[in-house]
Amino acid sequence: MDPIRNPYAPGAGQRPPELAGRDSELRSFDVVLERISRGRPERSLVLTGLRGVGKTVLLNSMRSTAVRRGWGTGKIEARPDTDLRRPLSAALHLAVRELGLKDADQRDQVLGTLKAFAMRSGQEPGKPPAKLRDRWQPGIDVPATTGRADTGDIEIDLVELFTDIAGLAGDAGHGVAIFIDEMQDLRPDDVSALCAACHELSQLGLPLIVVGAGLPHLPAVLSASKSYSERLFSYVRIDRLDREQADRAFRTPAIDEDADYTIEALDALYEATDGYPYFVQAYGKGAWDVAPKSPITADDVRVASPGAQAELAVGFFGSRYERATPAEREYMRAVADLEHDSEDGTLIVTTSSVADHLKRKPQSLSPARDGLLKKGLVYSAERGRIAFTVPHFGRYLRSAG
Length: 401
Description:
The structure is a single chain. The protein has 16 helices and nine strands. It has 401 residues and is α/β, with parallel strands linked by helices. The chain has three domains: 23-237, Rossmann fold (3-Layer(aba) Sandwich); 243-321; 326-400, Winged helix-like DNA-binding domain superfamily/Winged helix DNA-binding domain (Arc Repressor Mutant, subunit A, Orthogonal Bundle). It has a five-stranded parallel sheet. A four-stranded antiparallel sheet has the order 6-7-9-8. Strand 8 and strand 9 form a beta hairpin. Helix 1 (23-37) runs parallel beside helix 2, helix 3 (85-99) runs antiparallel to helix 4 and helix 5 (154-171) runs parallel beside helix 6. It is globular and about 65 Å long. GO terms for molecular function: electron transfer activity; heme binding; metal ion binding. Pfam families: AAA_16 (PF13191).
């Protein structure tokens, strides 16, 4: 098989050649955009799932859908060590530019408000703005306005800013969609502000929505901030592919390159990948590269498996394991030893069982657990329960000894 024609793409956030198993989510998003365009009420959207299930790819595909409809869009990746103002300001600036508005005065007025919002970055509410030379300067070529979105209180400012931008888009017959990846990493104050702004927009029926993506505990993060967040967002769980869709993800790109798989090869590939999209791409690429000809056989898959596993061990599992401290690694190994099938199909353990396994007091393990939570290596959707954010991570740790 010609390696140059290998169609598979095992990269972080990289769109696969065939976006299998996500047709329903994309159709639903089309409906959301159309309803908002017609002035119908709709909720913002939150995608949740483990790492490697394709949340970022789906987020990017939804953004492309919005762009094709003439919406203004912007995207950010949340970081726990960064406040929301700077990245959100850049995303909203891009969204306003994408709208292509003809009324320059109205556009510049809103951009002035956006600039005022951005320039409060890093400043505390109730304190005077920093001197001009000490302020961060966004790349917005209009003067900053005063008296709108510039209080320094992120919740007040974001409500005002979203309202102005949504009104601008609505007057032009368009909408704005802001996409936030790794949404669980937003700071608590920023989460609260975002929920409040989305709540205000939904009440006013203005055409601006937020589409977030994050780990399975993201709904709990939002709920802890604002109790009404459970009704504010539509939650969509993104999971692994079923057998039919996994076969489609393997076969369609191959057929486009005049190749195919035997049934036995597809059986072996599904057993190895469990339908997780990132694993599908890694194993598809490996099987293609070792196969001498089409169709790719089960023997080819067996030959390719060690290479695919080694690539995952370095780029998908190992890079995350290396970020952990010795105490955190000990904690993860205990979770790997204890994880078991839960009712909803995820692999979870109780924090008390980890303490028992390590013969330690639960309080002494809190720093390790909290460190893993902050690094996004484990999550806790329920009090007293813990699970890996990465599929097959426990299996990797057990096999690595």
